[in-house]
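Duplicate of earlier report; RNA polymerase Rpb5 N-terminal domain-containing protein input re-posted below.
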Amino acid sequence: MEDGNGYDSSMEMEGGNGYNGEPTESCLSGFVDNGSRDSLRYYLSRRTVLEMLKDRGYAVALSEINLSVQDFRAIYGQDPDVDRLRISISHQSDPSKRILVVFCGPGIVKVNVIRSIISQIVNRDTLTGLILILQNQITSQATKAVGLFQFKVEMFQITDLLVNITKHVLKPKHQVLTDQEKEKLLKKYSIEEKQQHNRHLCWTTTKQSPSLQPPWLNNHPHNYP
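Output:
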């Protein structure tokens, strides 16, 4: 019944019950993740990587991206084996361009870990890129070993991939510039192309042409071809 202030007493919650007489606990249970923290981290980071690869033009199935966390846990378990999380995929327009994504374990990444990864890569000669997802520090010797690979290697911390920043409402859309537009912009701000950082601008150079973007996004994984 509604009183003079517009308050409906029939909606009053008593004894921990919701508006429909259901216990408040049951209403909140839908927002609680009862799974393991590690499986959620792997799920979120792997989904972001798949979205990133799709943005780069790789043949990623939407069913992989849209996989629910429940289905992910049904496939990989509450304590996923990082070896099973690997992704090997070819570029949609150029099948000869193949990239491999490897999730490293929670320990410090040492030279022996890098050697183990490279020894497990099948058809190494056809690989054009490798992405390493780290959960810990990587030693200087391991970094040097990575630098000896004949293909491009990118390394990202798993915590940087828990959220896809490109989906944020405040994330500006990148604009690829033509050579003429690039020269005009450089001239306008009196800067040279070799200057990687400016007070307001940063350049990310691709094989085609550079893109203009805010400096705090210059090293984000989505910004590479």
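DSSP finds seven helices and seven strands in the chain.

Merging into the original ticket.
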